Amino acid sequence: MLVADTRAGLLRGPIGDIACSIGRGGTIAAADKSEGDGATPLGDWPIRGVLLRPDRVAPLSLALPWRWLRRDDGWSDDSADPAYNRPIRHPHPYSAERLWRDDGLYDAIVILGHNDAPAVAGAGSAIFLHCWRDGATTEGCVAIARDALLTLLPALRPGDLLRIE
User: Fold this and answer.
1) End-to-end Cα spacing for the chain
2) What is the DSSP letter of 29?
3) What pLDDT, in 10s, does the model give residues 96-125?
4) Which residues belong to the active site?
């Protein structure tokens, strides 16, 4: 199990302790999470899979389900969208985050099972473990240095959880 110790600012796991960042809104009880609050939801979140940007990440040997990120990949963040908190393809008729980014934050994305079984409209979307820009907060995700994330990914297994505490 991975543990995001938000008080210490560390992600604890199979490769040791790694500095991490969380949402600009701090942490929040999962039941109180709402779309756009910038808070990171407390709880145990299953690791669903990984997206990797093919022009920036070399192929990795992963036990987790994964696929290459496409330029038109997105994630619905519109609570009116029937596909809320699920992957979509752009163009999309509702608001959706673009996953193909120039800033490197989504070169590797670990999809977490927050608010997805089933998704409750407005209860938060796109909670990921992704690459960190040193010193920056996220919009509610957990982020670590890119090199650390790429080292961590092969150690993760189906059934693993990320505990945010």
Assistant:
1) 13
2) E
3) 999 999 999 999 999 999 999 999 999 999
4) 130, 141
> Which of 98, 44, 58 has the alpha carbon at shortest distance from 76?
98
Radius of gyration for the chain, computed over Cα atoms and rounded to the nearest angstrom: 15
| Residue 133, pLDDT score | 87
Q: Is the dihedral of CA 51, 54, 60, 63 positive or negative?
A: positive
DSSP 138-160: BSS-EEE-HHHHHHHGGG--TT-
Q: Residue for token digits 């509702």?
A: 94
Q: How many domains does the chain have?
A: 1
Quickly tell me which residue has 């040193």 as its tokens.
134
pLDDT at residue 23 in the model: 98
Range of the domain at 144: 2-164
pTM, rounded to two decimals: 0.97
Q: What CATH number is associated with residue 48?
A: 2.40.440
Average pLDDT for residues 54-65, to the nearest whole number?
97
